[in-house]
Amino acid sequence: MNSRVLILIAALMLGLFVLTGCSTDNNERQRLVTEADLVNGGSPTVVAALNTNGTPVVDDDFVPIEFLSVMFSARPLNDTMVIPENGTYSTFNVTSYDLAWVPGTNAPAALTDYNVTRGNLTVSIPVNEEVAASVLIGNLSMKAEAWFPGNPFIADLMVTFYGHESGSEHEVAFTAGTTVQFVATVSSN
Question: What's this model's pTM, rounded to 2 decimal places?
Fold first, then answer.
C-alpha cells in the first residue's frame, strides 16, 4: 500500500473514534450509569404556606420550606461489566444541579427568578446501591414574594444533575422532572 492510502485509513479511524468515543454528556456511554428517581413516585410536589386554623401564615416564626426528594442509583453499563466495589470508577459523584421552572397557566412569570444554575450538591452513589438526597425548591424568599400565596397554580420543574465517576473528571448530566402545585394553605392533617 502506498502512504496516501495508509494516511487516509488512519484519518478515517481517528474520525470514527472521535465521533463514537468522545461524548461529554451521554450517561449511557459511561462504565457506571447513574439515574435519578423522584421519591414522590410521579405525584406532584406541593409548595404551600403554613396553615394555622385555616389562615395562611408566611411571616410566622415557622414557615415550612419544601424539598424535592431524589433517589439516586448507580449500575454498570451492562450485565457483562463487573465493577469492583471500592475500585476505580465504582462510585458516581453528583457535584451540582440546575433547577428550571416552567410556569403553567396562571403561574407568575417571576417564578423563573427562582431557577438555580449549578447549585451545590454532594452525593456519592456506590455501584449497585441507592442513595437519597434532597434539593430545596420552595424557600423563604419565594414565600415572601407578593404573588405567593396567591391563587393556586401549577408549574413544571426540571432538575439537571451533574457529576462524574470516581477516578474520572468526565462530566455527565442527567435530568429528572416533576409537576409542582403551589397552594395558599395546606391542612395539618
Answer: 0.74
Residue 18, in any domain of the structure: no
59 within domain boundaries: yes
Low-confidence ranges of the chain (pLDDT < 70): 1-30, 39-42, 50-64, 78, 80-84, 87, 185-189
3-state secondary structure of 110: helix
Residue 70 belongs to what H/E stretch? strand 66-76
CA 145 vs CA 39, 110, 138, 154: distances in Å? 28, 9, 12, 16
**Which residue type does 12 have?**
L
Whether 3 maps to a domain, the answer reads: no
Domain of 78: which CATH number?
Answer: 2.60.40
CA 159, CA 99: separation in Å to the nearest integer? Answer: 5
Mind listing the pLDDT tens digit for each residue in 32-79?
788 888 766 667 788 887 655 555 555 554 566 788 889 999 888 767
- At 2 the pLDDT is 52
Between β-strands 91-103 and 50-52, what pairing exists: parallel, antiparallel or unpaired?
unpaired
Peptide bond into 108 cis (omega under 30): no
Residue with cell 408566611: 58
Number of domains in the chain: 1
Q: Measuring CA to CA, which residue among 156, 178, 159 is closest to residue 40?
A: 178
Q: How far apart are CA 95 and CA 38, in angstroms?
A: 18
